[in-house]
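> example.struct
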C-alpha cells in the first residue's frame, strides 16, 4: 500500500514538473523572441 502511494505521488510530481517546465520554457521563448533581433554573433556589431 505504501509503495502504491509512493508511486502515485512520484507520477503526479513528475507530471507537475513537466507541465511547469513547459510553461517556463514557453514563457522564456516568447520573452526572448520579443527582445531579440538578429543573430547572437552579430549583436556586438549592431551596437
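> example.seq
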Amino acid at each position: 500500500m505504501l509503495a502504491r502511494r509512493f508511486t502515485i505521488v512520484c507520477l503526479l510530481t513528475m507530471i507537475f514538473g513537466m507541465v511547469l517546465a513547459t510553461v517556463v520554457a514557453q514563457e522564456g521563448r516568447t520573452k526572448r523572441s520579443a527582445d531579440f533581433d538578429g543573430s547572437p554573433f552579430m549583436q556586438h556589431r549592431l551596437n
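> remarks
Helices lie at 2-35, 43-46.
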